[in-house]
Design brief:
Blueprint lengths: L8 H10 L3 H5 L7 H4 L2 H20 L8 H16 L7 E2 L16 H11 L22 H8 L3 E5 L2 H13 L3 E5 L5 E2 L3 E2 H7 L3 E5 L7 H7 L4 E7 L15 H10 L3 E7 L30 H6 L4 E5 L10 E5 L1 H9 L10 H13 L6 H4 L1 H7 L2 H18 L4 E9 L11 E9 L5 H9 L5 E2 L1 E3 L2 E4 L6 H19 L8 H5 L8
Helix pairs in contact: 4-5, 6-14, 17-19, 18-19
Length: 508
């Protein structure tokens, strides 16, 4: 495609000839030091790309002239952007504890240490150290899962969608699966249960209505083609009002009567409801009191007689992304033999982090304090109010021209967990004078360590539930830099605001 120039021919040619050569730019005092920090080939690629873009801009009439210093600055900016990782740590100030877009569960220090230990070298992923023969990666967590879930056996795959698919494909391919119409869930990322069933080659039979399903609805649908009854926990929504559902124990009894399997897809992954109030650790300001409403647990499911229970590792369990299947040993064995299981197997890092997380549950008296997700959900209103007051005071100190106030609010569990369960909190609402909230929020997300917050009524909203004290201080510094950046007539070079703090991590 030919680009028509809006610049007279002689002027255009003059401007094009004025562009420096590649060698001239490489010799520019602003560019030469970059050759010490970046591979020469990468610098050459960026220099050529910048020159090509400037030629295109000149031909289109979008550039007035040639500024070598400006070209050099653009080259530096592009190299800086190319060197930055796409996946980076983010400060979560939204108050959404299991924020799917932000990676769901932050890991306990023990899990982080386990990943570092295994990632740094070789490990016995599939080696039996006793015999010296090939082992199985699935054996590493079997005993822990048996112990903590009171299960005969357990299997870990890469997420709960894979767990659901494997169970359906292994035991119901070519046959029927009965499920309540009110449990046909859809979660983020275009996961729809009817489509998973179709992909697993089974036929879905939905019974009851959206809000009311009775045991008789299930029984009438059973026939010679029925393979299993499926209960799916609607962890990311609630149907309230004129409702009726069938207790798991009644479904188990019905399944036994007709020699069917009873599968319980719990999704959100609460291991046990037995998570007591725990005293504060040294240096902490309050006790931890976790309110889980009527969230079903894995131990409860198996105790009620479910043949298999499925759940996520990176939700209320507080571990890495994983799907866990626990229950009858013969059924777990059949799933292991399914050729598709290999396609969704977990890697060594996920297994290491999950094992370290599960071990924390051996001490129920302290697990709420040690698993970050549970600790965040258990933070008291008094503790959160004090944290919000400290953040607000720092805002007022560092940004006296800004408006800041502490307000009562509610946090969310998020991640398809504890839907409609409010977690009372206190937040800081801030407004920068003359700066639209959307612009300020976008600038915070562009930091070397991005800050993600909420917006309400043209104010930035910061919830301390998902912040530690160091992150709270980083937010104050980041917002101060953003205020300078957005009220300055000459916006700084990308990354310059981080340099102004003498510590890139303070950029938030």
């Amino acid at each position: 495609m030919t680009v028509m120039s809006s610049v007279p021919g002689d002027q255009l040619q003059e401007k094009l000839r004025a562009l420096p050569s590649v060698d001239a730019l490489l010799g520019h005092p602003s560019i030469t030091p970059l050759l010490d920090d970046y591979p020469r080939g990468e610098v050459l690629d960026v220099v050529r790309a910048v020159l090509d873009d400037r030629r295109s801009a000149l031909r289109a009439g979008h550039a007035k002239g040639v500024d070598i210093a400006g070209l050099a600055l653009e080259i530096r900016q592009r190299l800086y952007q190319r060197a930055r990782p796409n996946l980076k740590r983010v400060i979560n100030a939204t108050g959404i504890v299991l924020h799917t877009n932000l990676g769901r569960a932050p890991l306990a220090p023990e899990a982080v240490a386990a990943i570092a230990e295994i990632a740094a070298g070789y490990c016995n992923l599939e080696l039996d150290l006793e015999s010296g023969r090939r082992g199985s990666r699935y054996d590493h967590l079997r005993e822990l899962l048996r112990e903590l879930c009171a299960a005969e056996d357990g299997l870990v795959v890469n997420n709960n969608a894979a767990a659901t698919y494997l169970v359906l494909n292994t035991f119901a391919a070519g046959r029927e699966v009965i499920i309540s119409r009110g449990q046909l869930v859809e979660i983020g990322g275009s996961y729809r249960l009817p489509e998973i069933m179709a992909a697993a080659s089974c036929r879905m039979v939905e019974v009851g209505t959206t809000n009311r399903t009775r045991l008789s609805d299930f029984e009438r649908a059973i026939n010679s083609q029925t393979a299993l009854l499926l209960r799916v926990h609607t962890s990311n929504y609630r149907v309230v009002g004129f409702t009726e559902s069938v207790p798991l124990k009644e479904l188990v009894t019905l399944a036994r009567r007709y020699n069917l399997l009873m599968v319980d897809d719990l999704g959100s992954g609460l291991l046990t409801q037995d998570l007591p109030r725990t005293p504060a650790a040294p240096g902490e300001k309050s006790e931890h009191d976790l309110h889980l409403a009527d969230e079903p647990s894995v131990r409860e499911s198996l105790a009620s007689g479910a043949d298999l229970a499925l759940f996520s590792g990176d939700k209320l369990l507080g571990g890495p992304q994983a799907g866990v299947i626990v229950g009858r040993a013969d059924l777990i064995g059949a799933i292991r033999r399914n050729p598709l299981t290999r396609a969704v197997r977990p890697d060594k890092l996920a297994l290491a982090a999950l094992e370290a997380t599960l071990r924390l549950y051996r001490d129920p008296a302290t697990v709420v304090r040690r698993v970050p997700v549970l600790r965040a959900l258990a933070r008291s209103e008094r503790e959160l109010h004090a944290a919000a007051e400290r953040i607000c005071a720092r805002f007022r100190e560092v940004l006296p021209q800004a408006e800041a106030r502490v307000m009562a609010d509610h946090s969310e569990a998020g991640g398809g967990s504890l839907a409609a369960v409010p977690f009372p909190t206190w937040v800081v609402e801030a407004r920068l004078t003359g700066v639209p909230a959307e612009a300020a929020a976008a600038a915070l997300r562009r930091r070397d360590v991005p800050v993600v917050c909420r917006i309400r009524d043209e104010r930035l909203v910061f919830d301390p539930r998902t912040l530690d004290e160091d992150e709270a201080e980083q937010i104050v510094a980041a917002l101060a830099d953003v205020a300078r950046e957005l009220t300055s007539s000459t916006p700084p070079l990308s990354g310059a605001s981080a340099e102004a703090t003498n510590d890139p991590d303070v950029s938030g």
